[in-house]
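Researcher: Go.
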Amino acid sequence: MHEDDRAILLTPDELARMKDDMTTRGLIANLEQSPVQARVVYDPVRDLLVATVLATGAMLEARDPQDLAELLFAAGVRHGHVSMPDWREGDIAPTGGDKIALNHRLSQLGQIE
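Model: Structure:
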């Protein structure tokens, strides 16, 4: 073994702590780089669009996607920063028309600003 080929021995607890620290740092870095400011899902039971503003945890609800866009905009969410599930996620996915209407209205509001 060369002098440069040193091994670092860790106890299982130290290794677990190190993994937790790395995971936490990675999640924080991803969150800081993430352009997503809100997540919008469809609630089929109540027939509503439900948005969660990620920075505050605020929940916004509306039947009309344009109304929800206005609420989101007032909460600081901008066009291009909204995540919505697609059809593969099942019943919680907003319809294509709702997605288009919400994004279009956010875009309009951003141009007025």
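Model: Residues 26 and 32 are 10 Å apart (CA to CA).
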